[in-house]
């Protein structure tokens, strides 16, 4: 049995006599013997779990991972979203990332200050934005690990955003996230002489790679080099595996033992209007979900202590039942990511639940629900959510939450 075959279920404090009890069931399969998961209650060690995934003490030097690429390229976008982000999240302590945004860009033969890009001027601009971000941090004192990671997340953010070609929108948005807040400096660089200077540096790094491949262009505008090893396509197809195979330290990250594409099933059982639930979503799940999303399939079950007798649901209060049902409808309708969604389903639903839980008027479920729906869910869906939750139309959805909860049946 592989590590990732085991599933966990987190059950919340719905037990009548122990509202503060937070329990998990390690059910559904035998728990494999690993240093991360063995005999650990996932809720109690959720922060530890994230830490174990991300941070290791290593013996051995970091692997230099140089990525030659170009922006506004669908192949490159897929690579950064599916391959580079997991490497950032799970292998950061064993890699030294070097981004080279140039790809198959060329110089204008009639004006050496202009560039010609395969996907037009917008691609040239996006390349220059990233070249400036990288160039700015590398001037002067060597950047800290925090700053280097911030730039890596900035580059990933631009690729992940479906409106990447709108630099005036995506650039400031991505530059103010995570650990990197340098948009004014980037914008000044792009508009001035430094933009060309840093782009020329990227050209100078890329040209020898093209020469080594005996080709005047990069396939799909993308190439990856690990240390000084010859460039192969394997690293562009499974970057994490390529890094893990190249690492010579004494202890490989746990991620190296996980099959690509395999995920843990994480089911969160909870009830609304509950302080412990609020703390969990606000301090555990919402802040860390972006780290876990590549290895977790998440299900949210807002049912808790609800009782069902004589075809009627009862809770400690009417508002509790309605709040549970509102979130059940949201989970049912919006947890799955649909084509065309700008934000993946689990992220928006988790943010909606966290918003309802932490809203300054959280006890007024209608006000909090409407505002949080407007902030995080598709436009104009609140009336549908509320109507479904407060009518018989919501009963089948809530019964599904009951059935899932009854299957786990955590011990009080």
From TrEMBL:
Keyword Glycoprotein among UniProt keywords: yes
Keywords assigned by UniProt? Glycoprotein, Secreted, Signal
Q: Which domain of life is it from?
A: Eukaryota
Q: What is this protein called?
A: Uncharacterized protein
Which cellular component appears as one GO term in the record?
extracellular region
Name the protein family. Belongs to the GILT family.
PANTHER family membership: GAMMA-INTERFERON INDUCIBLE LYSOSOMAL THIOL REDUCTASE GILT, GAMMA-INTERFERON-INDUCIBLE LYSOSOMAL THIOL REDUCTASE
Q: Show the InterPro entries listed in the entry.
A: Interferon-induced_GILT
Output one GO MF annotation. oxidoreductase activity, acting on a sulfur group of donors, disulfide as acceptor
Where does the UniProt annotation locate this protein?
A: Secreted
